[in-house]
Amino acid sequence: VWIFGYGSLVWRPGFEFTSRKVGFIRGYSRRFWQGDTFHRGSEKMPGRVVTLLEDCGACTWGVAYEVRGDQIAASLEYLNMREAVLGGYDTKLVKFHPQEKDAEEPILALVYIATPQNPSYLGPASEEDIAAQIIVSSGCAGHNIEYLLRLADFMRYFCPQAEDKHLFSIEEALISILPCLYYTEESLEET
Asked: Which CATH number fits the domain that encloses residue 139?
């Protein structure tokens, strides 16, 4: 069984696997439209994490993990708790295209996708509003800023040929907001 990750699974799968491949799926865009009140946020200040939006002309880059034997039941049990129960995601089968030049046919992979019917679904917002929400959110897995920056780093280092305008626009908005949080007028006058 192959499992495709496009959010925190790219750097922290949390389950044992046999192999992993970087690549993409077609027909979906990654969006920070899913609320998170556990891993990267709280009930009072939900974080923002990614889900997939059907988009026929797009592709989303991530990592596919191959699980075999005893790994299958253990990984699916873990992911059903992490993604379905706590995250509110549904599962689908998608065609995963490995990045490798000599890759054979696409691989069928399981993917978790949040839908608008999900109670934690937040939907669209401006990049600035999403960045502002990410800055103030933290959960049991860490700060929401870490989630955004790790995902942007993954795209930069493992998929440099790919473009993810939504992700990088939010990162840019976050970086432009951060100095405002650390400097007061007095500290600016001292420099």
From this structure: 3.10.490.10
Specify whether the CB–CB gap between 21 and 99 falls below 8 A: yes
Which residue in 83, 104, 185, 186 is the catalytic one? 83
The Cα-based distances of 176 to 40, 98, 150 in angstroms read: 21, 34, 18
> Helices in the chain by DSSP H: which ranges?
70-79, 127-135, 144-158, 165-182, 185-190
Active site residue 100: no
Q: What is the pLDDT of residue 183?
A: 54
pLDDT mean over 61-72: 97
Q: In degrees rounded to 5, what are phi and psi of residue 27?
A: 90, 10
Q: List the domain range (segments joined by +) for residue 168.
A: 2-179
Q: Which is nearest to 154 in space by CA: 50, 15, 72, 76?
A: 50
pTM of this prediction? Answer: 0.90
55 within a domain of the structure (yes/no): yes
